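Below is one protein, fold included:
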Amino acid sequence: MKIGLVRRGYSASGGAERFLIRFAQGLKELGHESVLFSDCGWPESAWDSSQEKSVTLSGSTLSPIAFADALEAAKPKQHCDFLFSFERVWTCDAYRAGDGVHRAWLERRAHFEPTLKSWFRGKQKKHRQLLELEAALYSPQGGVRIVANSQMVKKEISDLYGMTGDRIAVIANGYDIHKMSSARRLGLREKKRKQLGLDDDEHAILFAGSGWERKGLRFAMQAFEAFKNERQARLIVAGKGHKARGIADEGVVFLGEVDSMASVYEAADAFILPTLYDPFSNACLEAAAHGLPVITTNANGFADIVKHREQGAVVPPGDVGALATALKEIEIHPSEKQRDELRSWAAEYSVARNVQATLDFIRTCAEE
């Protein structure tokens, strides 16, 4: 089967892009072809156009509706058998709601900012366009089938747009860690901790993500401030964003964007992502695959699969006190046995599992 994959723009640190690349590789291994529809040329390291077909809709990044219009004009079904969009568009055979529900994000965001700021945001062209496209995709009268990556997202689509649950499949994200021996992992850990200036008994709490307002970095820093008063610790921040004003950053190390996170995960002792909204955080799954307990919020679809106090902790978004308590109570310096248990648990959510479940879903859609 030739499957069209749609994504607007490209970011080397984007979770959706990393997932699409892994998904396309999984399709290839199962004997299927992929066609990438985008509005910019992806780098060869991400999408080798000499091996996999791609259709560039424009030479520059388009607005959400301009992209959706350009996709329609390209007559995508002439290039593929099934159109599977990772982007909000007017129509497709199936849409993977990996970016969640924009309307739900705006409503949640409004709880954490002044009313006037939310009002102005609602008037902005980008947000109006995303809501218009979203309404088309999630219309109860439409024929698009939806893949949600968490029960949280499925509920939001049903509650906010009235789409019936039988049109929505829930398939959790997948991630495959590169297999490493214990000696290799230890070597990566020791080397990276030395680069970061970490003492052997110093606790390293890792935060990874771009777009720090949504990902909740300010709450992580506030909770860390309380935590480090009791233990020798460092907060390691990977990614990019704007730091919140008036929050102390003593003991915080900013790495910027990191091309390969493996050594950073291995150097850390726990992972924290107090996100205000995340459909299903890839970074949380990646951290668990490297044996890190994960502290996150119930506004993260990843929380669907976490058992509190077993794989980490789940707290309400914006609750700094609960975050600080979780940091104090969690096994912050897990043994190798505990890390192995976390790795085994995360390994159940493999790319192969996700690809097969998604292909089964696509076949069902194609037969209807």
